Model the fold of this input.
Amino acid sequence: MDPIRNPYAPGAGQRPPELAGRDEQLDAFDIVLERVARGRPERSIVLTGLRGVGKTVLLNALRSAAVRAGWGTGKLEARPDQSLRRPLASAVHQAVRELGPAGGAGDHALGVVKAFSQREPASGGTTRGGATRGAAKLRDRWNPGITVPAVTGRADSGDIEIDLVELLSDLGGMASDTGRGIAIFIDEMQDLMPDDVSALCAACHELSQSRLPVIVVGAGLPHLPAVLSASKSYSERLFRYSRIDRLDRDAADAALTLPAEDEGAAFTPEALDAMYDATGGYPYFIQAYGKAVWDRATASPMTAADVAVAAPEAEAELAVGFFGSRFERATPGEREYLRAMADVAVELGDDSDAVPTADVAAHLGRKPQSLSPARDALLKKGLIYSGERGRIAFTVPHFGRYLRENA
Done:
């Protein structure tokens, strides 16, 4: 098979040639956009799932749908220990530019964005009452590239919750005047700092009550709903949660066969059986195996024998780019903890479910308290997550199998 015509695209956030199995989310989002634009009540959206299921790809597809609907959009990726203020200011700045209102309303909105962006609290301590001591130093001030003057008295208090509510409320008013809306897309949402999570929930609550045409679409790991709920008790009713999982058999087959058909190629039924067994329906794995099988196959239709020949290449690619890169981030003590998790999962009979932390400690012959530093570090690195108290799971599908095979 001609490798130049290979249609498959394994990559972080890279859209596959066929976005299979996500029609339900795309259709629902089109309805949300139309309802919000008409002033109907709607909730912001949160997508959750393991790594490799296509959350970022879907997030980008939803953003494209908002652009086609004429909305202003902006996107950011949350990072641990980074304030939301600057990346959000950049995202909403882009959204305002996409809406393009000229004159007073647009200039006022840009002025509020500028005020919000430049009110980053200064480093160097706080007063006894908790207020930031002094103004930000000149070298710490960020220039968002907005030429209009900052608006005084809006979104510039220094309290992220107050400022975010004012910012999105003013932007919502401007968007309402244009007859369109603003959508803000946040990837890796579970990495937001606690104060920023609280502020974002408060802002979404205010927007839903005032029915302004602004929505937030977030994506994150399975424990993201718990992160939001811990911040604001009403977050359970504030967002529409959508669990993004592996593809069912029909969708997985479509992700392979439709791109191949566009290139005049096909798979035998036996090859599709072998591909689903190997990938488990996970979108990233489907693309990795699809690319390897195409490159190794000598002719169409691609067969189960081609899958068997290409499997080591696909597994090697995943071992380096998907599993290994994450494993290398762990310290020796953390790797021991990860391997113990993998072993306990087998003992319990299911490699995909969460395992009790007490069982991991027992497997290692240690007290649970002594393992807390390793567990907490792995949580912060995004290698594991805790959806419920006392249980943990891998954020990456098939990670336990990788660890056991490469012990």
